[in-house]
Structure formats: structure tokens, C-alpha cells
């Protein structure tokens, strides 16, 4: 088991004086031998905060081999022992939350309180993993035929892998490896190459909590490493979270190679506002959910549909957005930090430009923002487009930045039809004081996660994340009960015991009728 004293070894400075993300193979944090490295850049300052290797094929193979070997003993480790590792892990994450949040903000850009929220949401999944004793129970039916009992075993499946996006470097890895491991599997994690340092700090704590050598491994990299995971014969299941384009590739390639794959992907989340909604609460919710984390949440509200007379609320939405504070994530009272990279900023500015060219009204323009003390930061201020229709690029593409598109609908039915025509189905919100409208909406809307007067309806960990349509491939979602199904194989045992050693039913060649 690693201890706190080992931690600096992983975080040590390389010769160049910059922290490097290590690989974790067979319980050891090792420097990659690759020639291919990428800088990890602070989005608020452009300072290089670390470097990440693109692991070689041999390193990926070594990580998988270590996981395959560890599976032989970890699968036999008693449930209670696995659970107690998670109990220690949740305690360590809680104790180290503020330290890890500092790293997360430095490499990802989100505000410090939001970074703590990112870790906290993952911590809740570790807490839930501590309930594995009941979560992994099988079923039993006595006397299904004369003297015959049937029961199920929920057995771990082997080496599982996880591929994670940049926007939640704590929460999303924690959606994956704690639940996979506590079910008795071993794991190979491929964090986002944009911000792997906070993920690695969580991984260090997992080892300190008692995760044995080989049970959790980490490789860094991009497409080559991901493809090596998708095609590796010894990996049984892959959890992916990221864009629709990459998720579809991972789902197809992994499935073709015989793996279970769950892919949680891109989004275009609508908030439908009825005129009877609580005005203040609704406008606050829209601004918070649209611009928090600079719009880089898969559940961010990126489209507002004002129904009927609620269209008159647009100026107030714009004012609320204008009032948000754009600043470095470490500054107190910051509402909107920088976007993750220069290329992300360029991409978002390009989409704003397209919105203008294609005829939408730029009701609030966040392009021209400079932040004192952070002049080089990748900042974009809150941006609101009104008069948007469903045919233009800013509506059709996921912007993944601090941009809200406002549309109008005459009736709730029209709004439901509009949302259901969008190919994405991650999250949606309805704002109303009418129970009847809410009931109709939740029944007819074709989106995985529905919020009623809740702008970002991410389920707590004892439910499962349930995106649908273009936002998800695979049947079972991350965490909750569904992921226990994903990370286990059900075996059905039908048994009969004789208390009389001389019993003889004779040969029966027909199917029994009772
Ligand atoms: P991304 O798809 O670019 O990257 C995700 C992972 O795939 C990373 O680990 C990356 O290294 C790898 N990758 C990137 N390009 C690849 C390629 N060509 N081939 C193979 N692997 C590749 O996503 P991102 O930009 O890191 O994250 C933002 C996206 O993630 C948004 O679309 C957002 O909606 C989505 N997201 C979805 C959820 C959800 O639960 N539905 C949650 C968070 C983020």
C-alpha cells in the first residue's frame, strides 16, 4: 500500500522542472518511455503546469497484463474487504478535496468552488460503492421445480477500461473505477490528456486506501491509446464519456472486438420555460446552468425555449448573464472561468461568428472580454443569441462554451416537439408551477434526464446517469444500480440436492410439464 509519504514521488518534478503525469502500472507510478509528450496548460494564464505522455503500445499492453494478473486474486477478495478499501478511499478524498481542487483549477480552469463540486460529485459515487454488499446481491428462488432451486451470481467480468473527457477530471473517472473495482474487476484508466493531474491525485489516494497493485492502472494518451484499449483482447468492458464523434468510434470499435461498451456522449440541453414559472428562480437557474463552468458541462443549459408570453423575459436573462463575473478560477466570486484551451476558444468564437452570419440576433456578445491580471486567458464572456431557429449551426452543433441560444414556441406541445426533434437526448428542464404541465412533459419528452424546475438534473449516485438517443450508446448508464449490471456477469445456477442417496427418478427424455 502506498502512503502519503509516497505521494511526492508521483508528483516529482522532471528534469525540465515541470511536473509529469506518470503511468500507473502494476502498482508503480512510472515515467513513460515515449517520445510523444504534450503540455498541460493553465487556461487562465497559459503557464505550463505539467506534461503528459502519450503511452506506447508496450506500455498499454503492460497495464492490461498487470490488470489481467491482478484479476485472478482480486476477484476472490471478499466483498467486505473490497468495500473497506472504498470506505478508506472516500475518507482520503474528503480530506484532500481542497488540495486536489487547486490542481484541477490550475489545469482545467473552472472556479475553485466548482472544482470542489467536481470532486464532491465523484466522492458521492465512492460512498455509494461502499454499499456493494447489497448492490451485488444475486436472486434466489426456492423450489422452482420439485426440489430444485434457482439462484443468480453477479460475478466480476475481468479487466475493464475507462476513457474520460476534460470537463470533469475528478467526477467522471470516479464514476468509473470505484464501481468497477468494488465489483471485483480490475481497471485501466485513460484520463483526458488535457487535464490528467487532478485525476492522478485521486488515483494516488486510491492506492493509499489499499487498492492492490495491478487492480487500478493508468495510461495516458490520445487516439492511439484509445484504439489500443478498444481492440485489446484482454479487455472485457469499456466505459467512455466524451463527445458523440469519439464515443461512436469507441462504441463501434470496442463492440466489434467483443467488448461491452457504454458511451455517454455530447448534448444539446433545452430548458423549456412556461409563462407561469417562478420568474426569479427560473432566470437564476438559466444563467447558472448556461454559464457555470463556462458552459463546459455535458448537462449545461445551452438552449432556452420561451413558451408564449415568457419570451418577454429575454432582456432579464441577458441582464443576469451580463452581471456574471468573468475571472480566473482561483479568484473569489468568479462565476465564469476560462474555457479549457486556446483551440476550444477559437472553435467557440467560430461558432459565434457562424451564428451572426446565419442571422441570429446577438443579444449579448461575450467575445470581447479581457480579464485584468489574466490577459492571456482563454476567456469568453456569457453570450446570448435570440431569434435562433433549428436550422442554423449554433443550434445544430454542441457549442460547449458560455453561449445560450434562445428560441420561442407558441405552446408546450410545440416546445416538446422541438426538443424531441433535436438528435441529442442528454438533459432537459421544464420551468413551471403547473403539475399537469410537468406530468405531460416528463411523459412525452424523449430525453434521458428530465428536470422539473431543476436546470441540471444529474441523478445522485444511487440512481444512474440516463442520457438517451444521440447522447448515449449502450444500454446501461454509469453508476447506480445499472453500472453494477454493466460491470458484472450474471450466472444462473439451477440446483437439486438429494437427501436420499438411493433416489432414482429414471431416465426422462421429455421436457417436464411442471
Ligand atoms: P473528446 O471526445 O474529445 O475526448 C474524450 C476522450 O476521448 C479523451 O480521453 C480523449 O483523449 C479521447 N479522444 C479524443 N479524440 C479521440 C479520437 N479521435 N479517437 C479516440 N479517442 C479520442 O471529449 P472532450 O472534449 O474531452 O469532452 C467534451 C465532450 O464530452 C462534450 O461533447 C460533452 O458533452 C461530452 N461529455 C458528455 C458527458 C455525458 O455524460 N454525456 C459528460 C461529460 C462530457
Automatic annotation (TrEMBL):
Report the residue ranges that make up the Aldehyde dehydrogenase domain in this protein: 29-493
Choose any GO biological process term that the UniProt entry carries and state it: L-valine catabolic process
| SUPFAM superfamilies, sorted | ALDH-like
The UniProt record lists the EC number as: 1.2.1.27
Q: Which residues cross the membrane?
A: none
Keyword list, A-Z: NAD, Oxidoreductase
Gene Ontology MF terms in the entry: methylmalonate-semialdehyde dehydrogenase (acylating, NAD) activity
Q: Say if the entry is tagged with keyword Oxidoreductase.
A: yes
Q: Which InterPro entries match?
A: Ald_DH/histidinol_DH (IPR016161), Ald_DH_C (IPR016163), Ald_DH_CS_CYS (IPR016160), Ald_DH_N (IPR016162), Aldehyde_DH_dom (IPR015590), MeMal-semiAld_DH (IPR010061)
Pfam families, per database record: Aldedh (PF00171)
Q: What class of enzyme is it?
A: oxidoreductase
The record's annotation in NCBIfam families points to: MMSDH
Give the family from UniProt.
Belongs to the aldehyde dehydrogenase family.
Q: What is the name attached to this protein's record?
A: methylmalonate-semialdehyde dehydrogenase (CoA acylating)
Q: What is the lineage of its organism?
A: Bacteria, Pseudomonadati, Pseudomonadota, Betaproteobacteria, Burkholderiales
Amino acid at each position: 500500500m502506498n502512503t502519503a509519504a509516497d505521494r511526492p514521488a508521483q508528483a516529482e518534478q522532471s528534469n525540465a522542472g515541470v511536473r509529469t503525469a506518470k503511468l500507473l502500472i502494476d502498482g508503480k507510478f512510472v515515467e513513460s518511455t515515449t517520445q510523444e509528450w504534450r503540455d498541460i496548460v493553465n487556461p487562465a494564464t497559459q503557464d505550463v503546469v505539467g506534461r503528459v505522455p502519450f503511452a506506447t503500445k508496450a506500455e498499454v499492453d503492460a497495464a492490461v497484463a498487470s490488470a489481467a494478473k491482478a484479476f485472478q486474486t482480486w476477484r476472490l477478495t471478499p466483498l467486505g474487504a473490497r468495500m473497506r478499501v472504498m470506505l478508506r478511499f472516500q475518507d482520503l478524498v474528503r480530506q484532500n478535496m481542497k488540495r486536489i481542487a487547486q490542481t484541477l483549477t490550475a489545469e482545467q480552469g473552472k472556479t475553485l468552488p466548482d472544482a470542489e463540486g467536481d470532486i464532491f460529485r465523484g466522492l458521492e459515487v465512492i460512498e455509494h460503492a461502499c454499499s456493494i454488499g447489497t448492490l451485488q446481491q444475486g436472486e434466489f428462488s426456492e423450489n422452482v421445480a420439485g426440489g430444485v432451486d434457482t439462484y443468480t451470481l453477479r460475478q466480476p467480468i475481468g479487466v475493464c477500461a475507462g476513457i474520460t473527457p476534460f470537463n470533469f477530471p475528478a467526477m467522471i473517472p470516479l464514476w468509473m473505477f470505484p464501481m468497477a473495482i468494488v465489483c471485483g474487476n480490475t481497471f485501466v484508466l485513460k484520463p483526458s490528456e488535457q487535464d490528467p493531474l487532478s485525476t492522478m491525485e485521486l488515483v494516488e489516494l486510491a492506492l493509499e486506501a489499499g487498492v492492490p497493485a495491478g487492480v487500478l492502472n493508468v495510461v495516458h494518451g490520445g487516439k492511439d491509446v484509445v484504439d489500443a484499449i478498444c481492440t485489446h483482447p484482454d479487455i472485457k468492458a469499456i466505459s467512455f464519456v466524451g463527445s458523440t464523434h469519439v464515443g461512436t468510434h469507441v462504441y463501434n470499435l470496442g463492440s466489434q472486438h467483443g467488448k461491452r461498451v457504454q458511451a455517454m456522449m455530447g448534448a444539446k440541453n433545452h430548458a423549456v420555460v412556461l409563462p407561469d414559472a417562478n420568474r426569479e428562480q427560473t432566470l437564476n437557474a438559466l444563467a447558472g446552468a448556461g454559464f457555470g463552468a463556462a458552459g463546459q458541462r455535458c448537462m449545461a443549459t445551452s438552449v432556452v425555449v420561451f413558451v408564449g408570453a415568457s419570451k418577454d423575459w429575454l432582456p432579464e436573462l441577458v441582464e443576469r448573464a451580463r452581471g456574471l463575473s468573468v475571472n480566473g478560477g482561483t479568484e473569489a466570486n468568479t462565476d465564469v472561468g476560462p474555457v479549457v484551451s486556446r483551440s476550444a476558444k477559437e472553435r467557440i468564437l467560430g461558432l459565434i461568428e457562424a451564428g451572426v452570419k446565419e442571422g441570429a440576433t446577438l443579444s449579448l456578445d461575450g467575445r470581447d472580454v479581457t480579464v485584468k491580471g489574466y490577459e492571456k486567458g482563454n476567456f469568453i464572456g456569457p453570450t446570448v443569441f435570440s431569434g435562433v431557429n433549428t436550422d442554423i449551426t449554433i443550434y445544430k452543433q454542441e457549442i460547449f462554451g458560455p453561449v445560450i441560444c434562445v428560441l420561442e414556441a407558441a405552446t408546450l406541445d410545440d416546445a416538446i416537439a422541438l426538443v424531441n426533434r433535436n438528435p441529442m437526448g442528454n438533459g432537459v428542464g421544464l420551468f413551471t408551477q403547473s403539475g399537469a404541465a410537468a406530468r405531460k412533459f416528463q411523459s412525452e419528452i424523449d430525453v434521458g434526464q428530465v428536470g422539473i424546475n431543476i436546470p441540471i438534473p444529474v441523478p445522485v449516485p444511487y440512481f444512474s446517469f440516463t442520457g438517451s438517443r444521440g447522447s448515449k450508446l449502450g444500454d446501461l448508464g454509469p453508476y447506480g444500480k445499472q453500472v453494477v449490471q454493466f460491470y458484472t456477469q450474471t450466472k444462473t445456477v439451477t440446483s437439486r440436492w438429494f437427501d436420499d442417496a438411493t433416489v432414482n427418478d429414471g431416465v426422462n427424455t421429455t421436457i417436464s410439464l411442471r
